[in-house]
Amino acid sequence: MRVLRTIAEVRAARAGLPGLGLVPTMGFLHAGHMSLVARARAECGASAVSIFVNPTQFAAGEDLSRYPRDMPRDLAMLDAAGVDLVFTPEPAEIYPPGHASRIEVGPVASPLEGARRPGHFAGVATVVAKLFNIVQPTRAYFGQKDAQQVAVIRRMARDLDMPLDVVVGDTVREPDGLAMSSRNVYLSPAERAAAPVLYRALDAARRSFDGGERDAETLRRAMAGTIASEPGIALDYVSVADGETLEEVGRAGPGCLLSLAARLGRTRLIDNVVLG
User: Fold this and answer.
1) CATH value at residue 221
2) Known catalytic residue: 33?
3) How many CA atoms lie within 13 A of 229 on its CB side?
4) Which of 14, 33, 155, 220 is catalytic?
5) 226-261, pLDDT tens digit by residue?
6) Does some domain include residue 276?
7) Do residues 44 and 149 share a domain?
8) Same domain? 158 vs 198
9) Mean pLDDT across the chain
10) Which residues make up each annotated binding site for beta-alanine?
11) Which of this chain's residues are annotated to bind (R)-pantoate (predicted)?
12) How confident is the model at residue 269 (pLDDT cuts 50, 70, 90)?
């Protein structure tokens, strides 16, 4: 495994690889990340992982300074998994002095997380576009847990004619249903015990849909009611939206996205499922 820290090093290494699968990450890797790494290795001629805590996707007051990091552990996991290249740049390598350009993806970035974290998806789209330009992958792998991020990146790649496939891996969950996330480490024992209610809320709405319910507001109430049954959780939003545009719908159908966000103490968690 080659650990590369500069754009020039990545471009030199990339030149000898005909096919390459890229897994962009912010590190502190878990089984969800590693499932994407496994797919990239299986489906492409070579695999690359980026580890970069991107400062431009964090708003003032968010958790940039305390975002969990453990580079030696991450590199050991990737080496054991057989990854070919790991790109671990410093912020100044990605955003040199005078850097001013950014990518705004449009309406798909506006609701849900976009409404609550202004500028977040411009930071995501910009850094992912830069990674795509630097690494030149044939396929790039993202997790379904960050469903709006996936929609934003797909739209950007489509609109800007980027010559790669965006591949989405299933959300990987703990045995009690909690979606794996690097931020789960923030949870206290009591918060961790309560956190699976997010998935129970999604599952309640999905089971209602599978039973024939199509009224989106009824599904939203099912999610909100389940969250309310768990003390100490502050619901941020529940959504039943078109799976591609993320516009709220009145009538649910296959392919619609159920999503929600909630706070447990200082920790904000998101989760989603796709209907049908």
Assistant:
1) 3.30.1300.10
2) yes
3) 12
4) 33
5) 999 999 999 999 999 999 999 999 999 999 999 999
6) no
7) yes
8) no
9) 97
10) 57
11) 57, 149
12) very high
